[in-house]
C-alpha cells in the first residue's frame, strides 16, 4: 500500500514539473475569458471584437492548454484572410467584415464591431492554413468541395506568419500564430451558395456599414456582415 502511494506521489510530482496537456472545454474557455478580462483591465480598453470572438470559440480541437505547476499556457493558430470578388459586368470588389452577429432567441441579433477588415478564424490543431481556409469557406458559403478548386476559387496563403506571445498574468501565458491569406471568388457564386443575404432582410444593425451578410452555423445562428468596396 505504501509502495503504491509513493509511486502515485512521484507520478503527480513528475506531472507537476513536466506539465500536462488539458483538453477540457471548461478549462480552455476559462483561460480564454481570463485573457479577455485581464487584457481589458490592463489596457483600459477591450480587445478588438474579432479577437474576443476568436478566443471565445477556442475548443480542444483548435487550442492547446498546457498546465505546468501553477502556470497555464494557452496556444492556438489562426488564419486571417480577405475576400475579393470579380464578376463579368459587375467588376471587382473587396468584402470588408464590419460586424459579428449571434442570433439569440430572446434578444434576436446581437452585434459587435468586427475590428480591422479581415476575416479571422481558428485553425484546427495540425491543420494547414490552406486546408483551414477550405473548411471555413465550405461552412460559410455552403460550397461543395469541387466549387473550391483552383479553377473556381483562387486561394492563397501569403506566407506571412505573425506570432503573438504574451504573459497575460503571472499564472497565464498566451501564444498565437496568425497566418494571412486571400480568396478570390464571385458574388454570383456566393449568392448561389444560399449563405449570402442582405443585412437589412435579416434585421441586422450594422450602423449603415454592412450591406450583405454571410449566415452560417448548424442552425444558421451566426452571421458576419460586410461592406462591399471597389477593389
TrEMBL record:
Highest taxon, organism lineage: Bacteria
Please give the residue ranges the record annotates as the region Disordered.
1-20
Its name, as the record gives it, is: Uncharacterized protein
Instruction: List the source organism.
Output: Ectothiorhodospira haloalkaliphila
Amino acid at each position: 500500500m505504501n509502495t503504491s502511494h509513493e509511486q502515485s506521489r512521484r507520478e503527480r510530482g513528475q506531472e507537476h514539473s513536466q506539465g500536462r496537456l488539458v483538453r477540457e472545454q471548461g478549462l480552455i474557455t476559462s483561460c480564454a475569458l481570463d485573457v479577455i478580462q485581464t487584457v481589458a483591465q490592463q489596457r483600459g480598453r477591450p480587445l478588438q471584437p474579432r479577437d474576443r470572438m476568436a478566443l471565445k470559440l477556442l475548443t480542444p480541437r483548435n487550442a492547446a492548454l498546457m498546465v505546468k505547476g501553477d502556470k497555464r499556457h494557452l496556444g492556438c493558430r489562426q488564419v486571417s484572410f480577405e475576400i475579393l470578388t470579380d464578376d463579368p459586368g459587375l467588376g471587382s470588389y473587396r468584402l470588408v467584415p464590419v460586424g459579428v452577429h449571434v442570433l439569440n432567441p430572446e434578444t434576436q441579433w446581437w452585434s459587435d464591431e468586427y475590428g480591422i477588415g479581415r476575416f479571422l478564424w481558428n485553425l484546427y490543431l495540425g491543420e494547414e492554413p490552406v486546408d483551414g481556409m477550405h473548411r471555413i469557406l465550405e461552412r460559410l458559403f455552403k460550397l461543395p468541395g469541387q466549387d473550391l478548386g483552383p479553377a473556381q476559387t483562387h486561394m492563397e496563403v501569403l506566407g506571412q506568419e505573425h506570432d503573438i506571445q504574451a504573459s497575460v498574468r503571472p499564472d497565464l501565458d498566451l501564444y498565437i500564430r496568425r497566418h494571412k491569406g486571400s480568396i478570390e471568388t464571385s458574388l454570383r457564386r456566393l449568392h448561389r451558395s444560399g449563405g449570402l443575404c442582405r443585412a437589412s432582410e435579416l434585421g441586422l444593425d450594422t450602423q449603415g456599414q454592412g450591406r450583405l451578410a454571410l449566415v452560417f452555423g448548424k442552425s444558421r445562428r451566426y452571421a458576419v456582415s460586410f461592406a462591399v468596396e471597389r477593389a
